[in-house]
Amino acid sequence: MIETSPIARAETIVDEALARYAGNIALACSFGGPSGMVLLDMIAKRDASVPVYFLDTGLLFDETYALVDRVRERYGIEPIAVRPELTVDGQNARYGEALWARNSDACCALRKVEPQQRFLANYDAWITGIRRDQSASRTNVGILSRDDTTGLAKIAPLADWTSNDIWSYVLAHDVPYNPLNDRGYPSLGCTHCTRAIAPGEDPRAGRWSGTDKLECGLHASFSALGANGTS
After folding, report:
1. 73-128: per-residue pLDDT in tens?
2. Least confident of 75-89, 106-120, 147-161, 185-199
3. pTM, full prediction
4. Which of the residues 5, 91, 129, 137 has an alpha carbon 20 to 30 A from that of 168?
5. Which residue pairs from 137-146 have beta carbons closer than 8 angstroms and sit at least 24 positions apart in sequence?
6. CB of 37 within 8 A of CB of 63?
7. Active-site option among 108, 190, 193, 216
8. Torsion of CA 27, 105, 142, 32, to 10 degrees
């Protein structure tokens, strides 16, 4: 068997996904971690018409919004800001101040999960930068899976990549990335629920720190798909 490089494998997965779901697939990019930026670079070079969206919770870091602007200029694409139905002020008025501190699951459901489900209702598949080495909760991530609640296909071309693979690609291709990644933030979400990590900590230890929460709910319920895209 001929061994292929991580880049070649990922590019093949991307090519097959774009062909199979042409016109009905979107890339989820948080503009926080470098994995999404690698996929954005791969996809924009192939088909700049593929929608790239991010979940604009209204609570993102300034550096995250600045990276969206850099990508717009660099690749000539218009990232789509997918927003909750309620503004932060509106959420505070309805559910009380700082819901994220009292019930982070409810906050994530309102500001991330529901907006993404609403947006992806127009598509058959989405591409994500989730990787197996990011945390213990992601060690079984499949390259192909299906959302058990919506039936949507989910493609993770970088599932078997390591952090070194990601950064090698970023540096080799001069891919723009969030400067907070160099300041102790390997994983970025909302400002109130993200902190810098200490040396040796899990890359996602800075997310919902001090709680047992591991995920926001976007990757909660998926089942494996076969090589031909069927479950």
Report:
1. 999 999 999 999 999 999 999 999 999 999 988 999 999 999 999 999 999 999 99
2. 147-161
3. 0.89
4. 137
5. 137/214, 137/215, 138/219, 141/219, 142/222, 142/224, 142/225, 143/13, 144/224, 144/225, 144/226, 144/227, 144/229, 145/222, 145/223, 145/224, 145/225, 146/222, 146/223, 146/224, 146/225, 146/231
6. no
7. 216
8. 40
Active site residue 216: yes
The arrangement of strands across the sheet holding 153-155 comes to 80-82, 52-55, 25-28, 125-127, 153-155, 144-147, 222-224
Nearest in space to 181 (alpha carbons), one of 171, 77, 173: 171
Q: Which amino acid, residue 46?
A: R
Structure tokens at 149: 């609640």
Residue 62 burial (CB count, 10 A) = 9
